[in-house]
TrEMBL record:
Keywords: Flavoprotein, FMN, NADP, Oxidoreductase, tRNA processing. Pfam families: Dus. Its cofactor is FMN. This is tRNA dihydrouridine synthase DusB. Residues 342-395 are annotated as: Disordered. InterPro entries: Aldolase_TIM, DUS-like_FMN-bd, DusB-like, tRNA-dHydroUridine_Synthase_C, tRNA_hU_synthase_CS. It comes from the Bacteria. GO terms for molecular function: flavin adenine dinucleotide binding; RNA binding; tRNA dihydrouridine synthase activity. The lineage of its organism: Bacteria, Bacillati, Actinomycetota, Actinomycetes, Micrococcales. The gene is dusB. It comes from Cryobacterium adonitolivorans. Residues 366-379 have a biased composition (Basic and acidic residues).
Length: 395
């Protein structure tokens, strides 16, 4: 464990509707990442709420095989959390109704934060709250359809610095009866670049008074999470890219947020510092869980390849071995490759820390034609809504 760098008074349990989390931590939905396998792995290390990758409401209503597979939870997942994406109030309502009627979810989140061009150019994700009338219709319809199931939203600050939406959208969502609001403190134009604007989280928290506000953006360690809570007053944190290749981060977070014993009324954030052997074991466990999830060893090995750089960041694993891991085709081959590593290699320190996952640079957000002309949804824009419901996952 590292020497503690800061302290914070114990954070209260996070209540989202009738769900109480003693550790106020949520795994952010990430397309192609937060499937059942990764959620189970993260839960083995820590605690919190673990949300599915984003699922398109149209695909769910049409019961496409992929969407039905993505909403399937392992029996060990006691709080089943699903994130939906949609641009049509009727379709979103139908998807929520289906999840509730068939008892497929204990928590539903709506995505209003995706910055990926294929989503925003159809008016979805982070682009949608600009059309505040449409946003209100979707959220109100979803809350009504959810009934007693807690429904939350996750959003960004807005489209760009000239078109911020988060405060108005937050007030609308609060009025519609959502159970919590999460803010990724970047605009769509920011994508994943630069630094998250934690001051915006504080502003939203000061504005929204009746439901929890969760902060998201640049949480790379438990110390970051505690600092976000201290600086913004948010009720909990949403962790995305920081846990890529390090599911044990949820163990760090659980230890940091739970009241410490024998240390008064303060928590001290430490850090799990895995040896190379422990990282290899986690990587192997991930591949094993993916095999169960896909019911295909070959597909699992293809999928786990993208995690290689994240898991072994900073560790003395040579380029040839990394390349071999990134082309693995079977668990037997994976075991042979992992066996060539020195399991006693210690945690490399700063080399394994910091940002991981995509970052890129700011970019102009792709939007439907004349999207910014009005805050209302009008004419052809409404009739074209279903065009934005085509993909199972938003990227």
């Amino acid at each position: 464990m590292n020497t503690p760098t800061s302290t914070i008074s114990p954070v209260s349990p996070l209540r989202i509707g009738d769900i109480e989390l003693d550790v106020p931590v949520v795994l952010a939905p990430m397309a192609g990442i937060t499937n059942t396998a990764f959620r189970r792995l993260c839960r083995e290390y820590g605690a919190g709420l673990y949300v599915s990758e984003m699922i398109t409401s149209r695909a769910l209503v049409e019961r496409t095989p992929e969407s039905m597979r993505l909403i399937t939870h392992h029996e060990s997942e006691k709080t089943r959390s699903i994130q939906l994406y949609g641009v049509d109030p009727k379709t979103v309502s139908e998807a929520v109704t289906m999840l509730v009627a068939e008892d497929r979810a204990d928590h539903i989140d709506l995505n209003f934060g995706c910055p990926v061009p294929k989503v925003t150019r159809k008016g979805g994700g982070a682009a949608l709250p600009w059309k505040i009338t449409l946003f209100r219709e979707i959220v109100e319809a979803a809350v009504t359809a959810a009934g007693a199931i807690p429904l939350t939203i996750k959003m960004r600050k807005g489209i760009d610095s000239d078109h911020l939406t988060y405060l108005e959208a937050g007030r609308v969502a609060e009025g519609a009866g959502v159970s919590a609001i999460a803010l990724h403190a970047r605009t769509a134009a920011d994508y994943y670049s630069g630094h998250a604007d934690w001051a915006a989280i504080k502003t939203l928290k000061d504005t929204i008074t009746s439901v929890p506000v969760l902060g998201n953006g640049d949480i790379w360690s438990a110390a970051d999470a505690l600092r976000m809570v201290a600086e913004t007053g948010c009720d909990g944190v949403v962790v995305g890219r920081g846990c890529l290749g390090r599911p044990w981060l949820f163990g760090d977070l659980a230890a940091a947020f739970r009241p410490s014993t024998g240390s008064g009324n303060q928590n001290t954030p430490g850090q799990i510092e895995p040896t190379l052997g422990q990282v290899a074991d986690a990587f192997r466990r991930h591949a094993e869980l993916l095999t169960e999830f896909f019911d295909s060893e070959e597909r699992a090995c293809r999928d786990v390849r993208k995690h290689v750089a994240w898991y072994f960041k900073g560790y003395p694993v040579g380029g040839d071995l990394r390349a071999s891991l990134a082309s693995v085709v079977s668990l037997e081959q994976l075991d042979e490759l992992l066996a060539t590593m020195d399991p006693d290699q210690p945690y490399p320190g700063i080399g394994a820390e910091g940002q991981r996952g995509r970052a890129g640079s700011p970019k102009k957000t792709s939007l439907p034609e004349r999207w910014l002309d009005s805050r209302d949804i009008v004419g052809a824009e409404r009739s074209n809504l279903t065009e934005g419901e085509g993909d199972t996952s938003g990227g």
